[in-house]
Fold this protein.
Amino acid sequence: MNLRDGNIFEAMRLVLPEHRGMMAHRNQERSVRKSPTLAQDETDQMWYTLSEALENGSPVRLTLFGVHNDDVLEGMPIYDGRLRIETKKGIVQVDRRRLIGVEYLG
């Protein structure tokens, strides 16, 4: 059966195991995402939501950009010159350059 007939495994049996690892690594490198550029309105809204949460003591969900997937932190925000969030696992410092979303939780 040829590859044209829909048998994808026909072509794969010719690939050496060492090369399969290299192909997987190459595919992972291709999946690297670029950081989104937020509009000024979106940035202003994020900081407004965060300041309201700090003032009211409300929990928030922060979305941080990641190269392969985004990181999500939920908890109480803390600001003392640097942005941190108190999660169930402890206090985590937030890199403000990676921040792409802020939502109220309660």
